[in-house]
Amino acid sequence: MALRHAVLAALLDEELSGYQLAKSFDLGVANFWHALPQQLYAELARLEADGLVAGREVVQETRPNKRLFKVTDEGLAELERFAASSAKPSMLRDDLAVKVQSSDLVDTGPVIAQLRERADFARAKIELFEKLLVKLRGGRVEEEFLREGERVGPYLTCLGGLVFERGYLQWCERIAGILETRSGEKERGR
Amino acid sequence: MALRHAVLAALLDEELSGYQLAKSFDLGVANFWHALPQQLYAELARLEADGLVAGREVVQETRPNKRLFKVTDEGLAELERFAASSAKPSMLRDDLAVKVQSSDLVDTGPVIAQLRERADFARAKIELFEKLLVKLRGGRVEEEFLREGERVGPYLTCLGGLVFERGYLQWCERIAGILETRSGEKERGR
DNA sequence: TCATGATACTCAAGAATCTGACTATTCATA
DNA sequence: TATGAATAGTCAGATTCTTGAGTATCATGA
């Protein structure tokens, strides 16, 4: 029961449909929570059944109709309880690190390629986050916004995503460089 | 089928029992993979049944007997295939970030406390990683070790863990400071 | 005009994960 | 000398997550 709270937190700022929510989990919220669309639809249904979110049908002419969900007072109370409860340590699962861990005993070629790919991805994400931050603080300088802005939560988590991606980017570049040098040395050594 | 590869990677350097493996997943490997002991015991059983690891009973006098596992050639071949296959994007799930996301609408007191706790945890982990790095490079300076060392995989993932925890630490401290200032302002504003 | 791709969802089945309890022995410590 | 922590696991059941396939409409571009 933890996806529930991630969904509630994601719905705090705007009413979203399941489809939009899925997109936001693939971009913004994905910094700190991962879920597939199917899970989100299912979770929204459960949340609605429990009265933590309220859905309303929006009829569209040019596209299929959709249901928009917003957090209810009960939902907010649930988030309040969650925030006060003890947090589980953050959980990370990273395929690429598993490959790096075994990199002395397997062919490093594909691992280096994947590190470079991941670095590109991180660069794209960083750019996206930087734009999002500018948008969220709406003209104000950061310090002023963080002191006086009404809604800073998403900004703060976006800062977290930025820190994470910048760290990951540096790591990828450094490790790719090291593995490349080492595989070069090995060639010459033969 | 992804925990398998994390387990194989963790067993590359030493023969471990399920119990020891569980410990290492709680400390070192936990940088990039999370799993509970029960899962590890089950996965070891499956890996052994598939011939990817080999277990041997070690009789102990002063403690309960244990079974040590090592990676077989087949296991290594499986890791090789895994390293060459495309990686899934790293998956993060972070309770604390969910709480920060909703921090404008819930009581920030407990969130700030949790950020400080997490910061302490990160500091402890950083110290641990730094010691581990010194141990892994065994007297040599980093550059030399990374160029000429025979087994650098665990060192590289440890570097990753360090980058991650340092980033997380900075984020926690900064966010805790911001939320504290804001809650102070609010008090005075009443 | 025909094929994508985007919007907006749904369903079922199976794999993976988590919760919680249990067994048994030894070591340290209060 | 009891008490709790550490070693070394096992088991069942519930929940969660992932895989894979479908439905239907509209817009865009080749």
UniProtKB/TrEMBL annotation, chains A, B:
Residues 7-80 form the Transcription regulator PadR N-terminal domain. Coiled coil: none annotated. GO terms for molecular function: DNA binding. Residues 92-179 form the Transcription regulator PadR C-terminal domain. The keyword DNA-binding applies. Keywords: DNA-binding. The keyword Phosphoprotein does not apply. This is DNA-binding transcriptional regulator, PadR family. It comes from Streptomyces indicus.
